[in-house]
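Page 42, continued from yesterday. The earlier attempt failed because a stray header line got pasted into the input along with the sequence. Redoing it now with the clean sequence only.
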Amino acid sequence: MSEHAIVARELTRRFGGFTAVDRVSFEVAPGEVFGFLGANGAGKTTAIRMLTGLLQPTSGEARVAGCDVATQGEAVRRRIGYMSQRFSLYEDLTVRENMRLYGGIYGLSDRRIRARSEAALERLGLGDAASRLVRDIPLGWKQKLAFSVALLHEPSVVFLDEPTGGVDPITRRQFWELIYEAASRGTTVFVTTHYMDEAEYCDRVSIMVAGRIAALGTPGELKARFGTTSIDDVFVRLARPEVAR
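This time it went through. Structure tokens are written below.
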């Protein structure tokens, strides 16, 4: 299983009599952009919490960045990056102070924090905003900054939970350019989104329905399999069959 960045085998999580994630199995290759789709309540968040070592599986197994999520949760968290759907940086700190803070949390030396922060600021075009409080910069900048902070320690896998929510189409496109850039450097990107056009940008996508993976493949494969012209149509057929009729 070590040749894959993420491997799940029959991964299951129950809460009492309710099964939130039901025997989910998939693999994600190094450097792959993997879309993890599903309607609210489908089990995506529970699955991500297990994959990031924050929640113990009830049964099954998973390995992320070479570590067992059930027994090596702390090691998993050291090797991954994570960007939540709720903006997670400190708004009363400056852009540069946030980068310094998270670099320290990730265990980077002061020298590496400075070098990687400056490189990220230059790549994002945020050099002039480095001394501004995060609360004073536009939402799109905040989202791109949060992504860069999640990559500051050069993790092998980064989890992005609805990273482009609320931003304009141009910023969304710029954000995906950053995703492609990270993937080209070998970082595996595991991304959830409610924008079905963004699913088309992924190398492969899975669609969860009621705790199970109902479909998995490249966007082209899924559209061909279901005889549709868009992932949005595939999603509606699987997740909202009453609408698709």
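Notes: The CA atoms of residues 11 and 60 lie 4 Å apart.
Reminder to self: strip header lines before submitting.
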